[in-house]
Description:
The protein has 72 residues and is mainly α. It contains 4 helices and no strands.
Amino acid sequence: xxxxxxxxxxxxxxxxxxxxxxxxxxxxxxxxxxxxxxxxxxxxxxxxxxxxxxxxxxxxxxxxxxxxxxxx
Length: 72
């Protein structure tokens, strides 16, 4: 009886199974986007902000004004 109540809608109320399915359908694309982003990071792709931070460190470590223009 409880399994039937869980899986069947009644009295204007959606079944728990339908609610879980709906939430999963909304959540799965978000989960896939996170996995895609993690895979891109592992594949060696970098974002611009990380590239600019590395470039800023190169400029900061340069011994003089002339050396600062070498990375450019």
